[in-house]
Design a protein that fits this description.
α2 runs parallel beside α3 and α6 runs parallel beside α8. β5, α6 and β6 form a beta-alpha-beta unit. The longest helix is centred in the middle third of the chain and has 17 residues. The relative contact order is 0.13. Helices cover 36% and strands 22% of the residues. By secondary structure, the chain is an alpha/beta fold. The strands form three sheets. Strands 7-8-6-5-4-3-2-1-9 form a nine-stranded mixed beta sheet, with helices on both faces. A three-stranded antiparallel beta sheet has the order 10-11-12, with no helix packed on it. The chain has a two-stranded antiparallel sheet with strand order 13-14. It has two domains: 249 residues, Aldolase class I (TIM Barrel); 69 residues, Winged helix-like DNA-binding domain superfamily/Winged helix DNA-binding domain (Arc Repressor Mutant, subunit A, Orthogonal Bundle). Bound molecules: S-adenosylmethionine and iron/sulfur cluster (SF4).
């Protein structure tokens, strides 16, 4: 049996409210009813939630903080500041840690980004989705393209140079030229990072119930992906994950940690955490009450915990591959052993099978997906499923 060793630790903070729920979105995000969200009470509850999780990570340095949502940019900077001060007093923040806040361009006001920056935020991730006003309307977005460009400029002027732009493609009414034009506009802004997601119809969304008209078919979606990938590469954005592209050295520290099967605390409504407990040689998953009202009423008490689960050894190869094989860099067998506590022999059979099929290859001491493997991502990962189906 290999030894489980504790990987780097990150902190995820879920902020669940949005001005309006987008029809394609299945995130734990909610339109507030009857007045503004209780921002200050939410921060109190976050700190109580964190207090409850602290014994899981005593003394370990935190390498990134990510405010995700929902629309974190709805929160006043003073609340983000109070949370970060409280978190820094409770946890060991590594020097220069990355602190990302997701922003909807429709919530950008003058002065806001300066204040986030003063609070410690050093990376903003904008939900741009598209620069085409027709597409934005069909997606139910609360902003147009001019507002999106203005918002990004405000963040740049505030001195936040580590920016991500989220784009989606395969949008209703979009053709190849329109998808390419979106990437062109994004690249012209010169952000450090671009995330390029194919629109998916998620169950339990308005789009799943009533699919929008003129959705691109799979072939067109594939052409868009290949075309945009080449465009991004030509503009200096190297792909490093299925949907993530970055300028040299500007990959997202927080997301890379997920994909390398690192540890993270998850606090806030519905947040998930994954923590390696070295002394017990086990990996704990913990998630919180999902609904903001239920979570607010119980955060910091046992009732605030939606559930705890330990990842049994037979399930670890699948969970590891679900993350690691999203990365173009793949993984090293030593990393697999350290993060799962399993010997490499545990995956010898599925690994050989994936290589035989041309889905994975060994190069420079790493195991990585081939171009073919990239196309059959789900099938590759299925090979690592425990044979009992656990
Ligand atoms: C939690 S949202 C964060 C940003 C912010 N809430 C906003 O929308 O402006 C993260 C990103 O996931 C992507 N996303 C959300 N739903 C999606 C879907 N159904 N298919 C593909 N990408 C999606 C969008 O690009 C979105 O910006
Ligand atoms: S703003 Fe973002 S999180 Fe909120 S509903 Fe839209 S996509 Fe989802």
């Amino acid at each position: 049996m290999a030894m489980l060793t504790t990987p780097p630790l990150a902190l995820y903070v879920h902020l669940p409210w949005c001005v309006r729920k987008c029809p394609y979105c299945d995130f734990n995000s909610h339109q507030p009813r009857g007045g503004p969200p209780p921002f200050s009470a939410y921060v109190d509850a976050l700190l109580a939630d964190l207090d409850q999780d602290l014994p899981l990570v005593w003394g370990r340095p935190v390498h990134s903080v990510f405010f995700g949502g929902g629309t974190p940019s709805l929160f006043p900077a003073a609340d983000i500041d109070r949370f970060l001060q409280g978190a820094a007093a409770r946890l060991r923040f590594a020097p220069g840690l990355e602190i990302t806040l997701e922003a909807n361009p429709g919530t950008a006001e003058h002065g806001r980004f300066e204040d986030y920056r003063a609070a410690g935020v050093n990376r903003i991730s904008f939900g741009i989705q598209s620069f085409d006003d027709g597409c934005l309307q069909r997606l139910g977005r609360i902003h147009d393209s001019a507002e999106a460009e203005r918002a990004v400029k405000l963040a740049q002027d505030a001195g936040i140079d580590n920016l991500n732009l989220d784009l989606m493609y395969a949008l209703p009414g979009q053709d190849l030229a329109m998808a390419a034009a979106d990437v062109e506009r994004a690249v012209a802004i010169a952000p450090a990072h671009i995330s390029h997601y194919q629109l998916t119809l998620e169950p339990n969304t308005l789009f799943a119930a009533r699919p929008p008209e003129r959705l691109p078919d799979d072939d067109l979606a594939w052409d868009m992906q290949e075309h945009c990938q080449a465009q991004l590469a030509a503009a200096g954005y190297a792909q490093y994950e299925v949907s993530a592209y970055a300028q040299r050295g500007r990959q997202c520290v927080h997301n890379l940690n997920y994909w390398r099967f690192g540890d993270y605390l998850g606090i806030g409504a519905g947040a998930h955490g994954k923590i390696t407990l070295g002394h017990e040689q086990t990996i704990l998953r913990r998630w919180k009450q999902r609904h903001p009202t239920a979570w607010l009423a119980s955060a910091g008490t046992p009732a605030g915990i939606g559930g705890d689960d330990r990842i049994a050894p037979p399930r670890r190869p699948f969970e590891y591959m679900l993350n690691a094989l999203r990365l173009l860099e793949g993984f090293r067998l030593e990393q697999f052993e350290a993060c799962t506590g399993l010997p490499r022999e545990a995956i010898a059979r599925p690994l050989a099978m994936a290589m035989e099929r041309g889905w994975l290859e060994a190069r420079d001491g790493r195991i990585l997906p081939t171009a073919l493997g990239g196309r059959f991502g789900n099938d590759v990962i299925q090979l690592f499923m425990d044979e009992d189906g656990d």
